Amino acid sequence: MAERATLEELVRLQGERVRGLKQQKASAEQIEEEVAKLLKLKAQLGPDEGKQKFVLKTPKGTRDYSPRQMAIREKVFDVIISCFKRHGAEVIDTPVFELKETLTGKYGEDSKLIYDLKDQGGELLSLRYDLTVPFARYLAMNKLTNIKRYHIAKVYRRDNPAMTRGRYREFYQCDFDIAGQFDPMIPDAECLKIMCEILSSLQIGDFLVKVNDRRILDGMFAICGVPDSKFRTICSSVDKLDKVSWEEVKNEMVGEKGLTPEVADHIGDYVQQHGGVSLVEQLLQDPKLSQNKQALEGLEDLKLLFEYLTLFGIADKISFDLSLARGLDYYTGVIYEAVLLQTPVRPGEEPLGVGSVAAGGRYDGLVGMFDPKGRKVPCVGLSIGVERIFSIVEQRLEAELLYKKNPKLLNQLQYCEEAGIPLVAIIGEQELKDGVIKLRSVASREEVDVRREDLVEEIKRRTSPALCIC
Amino acid sequence: MAERATLEELVRLQGERVRGLKQQKASAEQIEEEVAKLLKLKAQLGPDEGKQKFVLKTPKGTRDYSPRQMAIREKVFDVIISCFKRHGAEVIDTPVFELKETLTGKYGEDSKLIYDLKDQGGELLSLRYDLTVPFARYLAMNKLTNIKRYHIAKVYRRDNPAMTRGRYREFYQCDFDIAGQFDPMIPDAECLKIMCEILSSLQIGDFLVKVNDRRILDGMFAICGVPDSKFRTICSSVDKLDKVSWEEVKNEMVGEKGLTPEVADHIGDYVQQHGGVSLVEQLLQDPKLSQNKQALEGLEDLKLLFEYLTLFGIADKISFDLSLARGLDYYTGVIYEAVLLQTPVRPGEEPLGVGSVAAGGRYDGLVGMFDPKGRKVPCVGLSIGVERIFSIVEQRLEAELLYKKNPKLLNQLQYCEEAGIPLVAIIGEQELKDGVIKLRSVASREEVDVRREDLVEEIKRRTSPALCIC
């Protein structure tokens, strides 16, 4: 404290000296030098406690990755990349920002979430919002009409995210896309196959992939009597059905977006349906829907898609869901979204979706928007949203400390049962004497003694091999 | 063309219809619907050739990475990461942007090159300028006083880069830093060792690491009579000596920065010196410099550093260079910069530095600028600038096509000699008959027949094993 007081006195004196010089109208250079001395003294003094002005944090919606979190990130990426490569994709990378006009008119209502850079002279730039639009720009720029590529990088959205649920303003996307003209529905089926392979390999629990088609939605809107100009905004309303009830969505359609209650109810009859290929066949018999050219094309393509999905052995993971709409403007055909399922609370209840972890679809018009001659390159792709997956894996791997002074073994075991912790390593006096560790399976309550040197291997063997952090 | 003409006519008619409705003061909804139809027709019409408004490019100073370039990038990263890990570093990651105030006051004259984000409400943000300041912020935020970490990520500078020489506005840095209190010069020596290991492994040619110390520079400025307030700006002038002549630097010091010619010449006598540990010892005998407390500390530390560098077997790669100043404000002690050497044109000439590929130094005050109580954490680190390395590797790996209709073999071999291509694979009539390929070493002019199935292995064996792209 004495040293600080002396320094403070020096700063005061030097400050007086500078003021004195200014009153004497000393040379600018002299004053400049004395001010520099003052600033130097102030720097030595260091920031005053309680006077700290700046906030020590990362920007809202972002986070650092610690070495431990990086280990999880790398393991998850390894699983994803090896699947992308197995399916023949090459990797590319693009800049983190694009010309602002490259992103303009591609994202519909979500465009307001784009981060713009400050105009500091030169080009107007925006941070990339996804990896799909930069990919389309890349294809047009390099005149590519045929490529399978993957791209893993951060994207940016000025959203108000619930970070506890693994949503951020800066987050990774892992994208796989197929560009080129191929036989119908084969690339689309491969994208769904890749999604299922990755979600299975990651062992993050049961999942379901909802599938729909923009043409079916548009056809449905048309026969229900929605004006053309309202297709996209009604699409956004429908897209909320995974979060809110039909009543709320209907209120929005009628109250905010000006549909009549009859038109809304008509839409409601459709969008509340979901099922397998039998629902596709049922709708192909729907006298009104099957008369609409767009809807008919969509339904016939979905029927073909289900044939491939059955051949690929993943049809049981897929649900044709008429409420799936997806927010982005650029989709033109099949769309899909994978959700993790929560184990039902009561037996007999349907599993509850707890959030999207992957999504994608067909966008046949996007490359043409960049090509100087409007040449189209059909594309279909998928994006894995890994932040939520990181959260799940992180929680699963977390070792916990019980905040009790004298925790009884029985209480600890009970806590493990409640928290879903699979294995307990017990070290008591007897175990210490024998040089072993008692490993208890919480579910089966079976216990075995394991030699200390074998413990790591034994735990590895019993837990996820794909995601074990060594 | 007929189809386009019909569409154009439809667009015109629909436009008239909309104008008509507006004159009739039709309902807003009716007009909205008709406008939507008009826009849809215009979209079908597609962009008009020659009327293309937007530019199809990446932002200035940025580039995409093709799959081929990604392969080079991954191989280079592999070499770097395995060295960082071998030296015990953990990996972290931080967001691409920071609060603007986190970057303020850390970069001196270079601060004008920081990219700011547009104020769209909420926090003021800037793209990271390097990985060092985010690392210091991370240490202070997590109250870490001891860590070896590496971080590989893109940083952003609004520079006017010469992209052909591997300089960009968006570019990768590969950083390794040691935070914590250790015995003097040991972490500093390890950083230099890592730099040398990586540059040797990458096999991109001969290199030299220039070393200096901020305290020697400051002490030298003081005894030459530079006012305190001008230390940093004169430092920037000195830093240009690797690009321009001493005369030009002197002109800047006198003409722009207000030194007297005598003071400038005095500086000139010092900064034009470079050498090994003997120059350190010579300056320790310099009557004026050794009387300056800062300079003396710096010189004694450099002497100790050279002892460790000799033990590490890299002293011959290091040059004590009094002209090395480094632009950034936050360095407090040893600084260094690695340059690639061009083979001299005439025998006996000194090798010419062709550009910095790695740099770093000690910054003991930076973490304290973030800590609420000003607690200091000594740090030293290095940064590998990989973009230039990518360029060199890319050039080296490029297979070339000779633009001649009937190229004679002798001309081709001569071209290889001139261009420094190491191997030639020759397939003539005889080789085709025998099922072999003649492999010729351009330097030694030796030729051997290699079986077709062994060719890839043989080329791999003869070229860089660390960087072979399969």
Structure description:
The structure is a homodimer of 470-residue chains. Chain A has helices at 2-23, 28-45, 67-86, 100-103, 132-141, 186-202, 214-224, 231-239, 246-256, 261-271, 277-284, 293-311, 366-370, 386-397, 409-419, 429-434, 455-462; strands spanning 90-91, 97-99, 125-127, 147-156, 170-179, 207-213, 274-275, 318-321, 334-342, 352-362, 379-385, 423-426, 436-441, 447-451. The longest helix of chain A has 22 residues, at 2-23. In chain A, strand 13 (436-441) and strand 14 (447-451) form a beta hairpin. The model of chain A is unreliable at 465-470 (pLDDT under 50). By secondary structure, chain A is of the alpha+beta class. Chain A has a 9-stranded mixed beta sheet with strand order 1-4-5-11-10-9-6-8-7. Chains A and B meet through helix 2, helix 3, strand 1, strand 2 and helix 5 of A and helix 2, helix 3, strand 1, strand 2 and helix 5 of B.
Largest sheet of chain A: 9 strands, mixed
The rounded distance between the terminal residues' Cα atoms of chain A is 47 Å
Oligomer: homodimer
Can you count the helices of chain A?
17
Low-confidence stretches of chain A: 465-470
- From the alpha-carbon coordinates, what is the Rg of chain A to the nearest angstrom? 30 Å
Protein name (chains A, B): Histidine--tRNA ligase, cytoplasmic
Pfam family, one (chains A, B): HGTP_anticodon
Keywords (chains A, B): Aminoacyl-tRNA synthetase, ATP-binding, Ligase, Nucleotide-binding, Phosphoprotein, Protein biosynthesis
Function (chains A, B): Catalyzes the ATP-dependent ligation of histidine to the 3'-end of its cognate tRNA, via the formation of an aminoacyl-adenylate intermediate (His-AMP). Plays a role in axon guidance.
